[in-house]
Amino acid sequence: MIWLILRVRRDFSTWERSTRIAFVLGSVLLILALVSALLAPPEVRMPVLGGAGMLLLVIELTVLWGNRGMISAFTRAQRLYMDGDFDGALALLESVRAKADARALTLLGNIYRQLGRLDESEAVLSEAVDKAPNHYFPIYGFGRTLLSEGRYAEAADAIQHAVELGAPSVVRGDLGEAYYRLGKRDDAVLALHDASINEPHRKLMAQYLLYRMGAGGPPTVEVVEGGLAYWRATAERFRETPYGVALESDVYEMQSRGIETHG
């Protein structure tokens, strides 16, 4: 119910006229139904409350209909993001920025990070966290941006909080990296061992860090070939931050120690 009130308060003026009228009429009828339920004899109270429940459902559907453009924009931006078209996703989300919810703000903040625009990423993700303080999605994104800035202690706290809120196991890999950058080797090893990782670049980082800490063998040639290009690009993207500098050193170490095959 609180979600409904906050959503309507923010977006009502952007809805088309027919949707606003439907919402107002539904709200008036809901109030009348609730008042009638309070005044009605006990034997008819439950049917009246049932009707009020149906009216509430209609009102919720009206809110979703009124915001269908935002939902559609988020879905399209998400597809563009997954396809690697960050500029297209960015343009789409910035066009609906004024009424973006926590999901859209998180995606926008993640895109800013992918484009190396860390100040904007931090600001937008902080706003997303304020809108959804108990959901791991924006908190994890915020932690990733802090990590990219080289603010490792804050990043570890944020990512750990995301894990506590139910983030997927793969997020523990990011937590392990944050702990590694902090020099907390035991915590890093534990987090990395607990992570469930399939993406090639994540697998490379996890295996490499465990190797550096003496908790595993070197990454295989296949793993290196599948993930090193991503970390090269990431080091270049964040070259002005302590994280980018550290990552550049890691990439060099992977190569100079003969983990990567050449030619």
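The above is record 1. Record 2 follows with the same two-line structure.
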Amino acid sequence: MPSSTASLGDITLTCDIARVDDSIVFTYSLANQGRTAMVVMDAAPVADLATGRRHADAAAVTTWFGADAHAHVLKGTAPLPEGVEPEAAILPIGVRLEPGKTIERRLSERLPLSEHSPYAPHGNLREYRLAPIQGVALTVEILPALPGLIAEARDIARGWWRVSDPEAAAGLVQRLTCSFPARGLFMLVRLAGYPRPEIPPPAPTGSAV
């Protein structure tokens, strides 16, 4: 199973990737070897259409086809589509990663990979073109758990944290990325109107997925 590791300061992201049936599965962990608690972006807030109650969607990610021909998978803040005002932004929620602790996660994306985000759910096949990819990159956003910067999202559930000062947080968000070479994989790329941030992945490591 291909494995990759990325470190940023005292935080280490370790990720394995595998094809399981008709999906790509990431099994990853983040370890905090420092003295400061961090918030790991881990879900998107979603409202139930029937009840209006909000819950955490831990499967929410943003995916896109990069200029580097990589399929990017982001656990973090989705870029705003054209026409969406900043006040309407869907901000991710996270969990605290205390010093000396590790969290473990499993994330599955169906094949063929396709571009989607909290703003743009999976669409009709006519909205895409098929493109070969040279690699797959998983990026996880983190930021310091500073007082005044984050607040517990108790309207969702205890243990979830949201950014309370987005402007201040924008300069403190950091990203860790693990990258893998790919062979024989394709991605459904939207034909128009989809934002694609530039996050150059590190050099792919290990055998191809």
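The chain has one helix and 16 strands.
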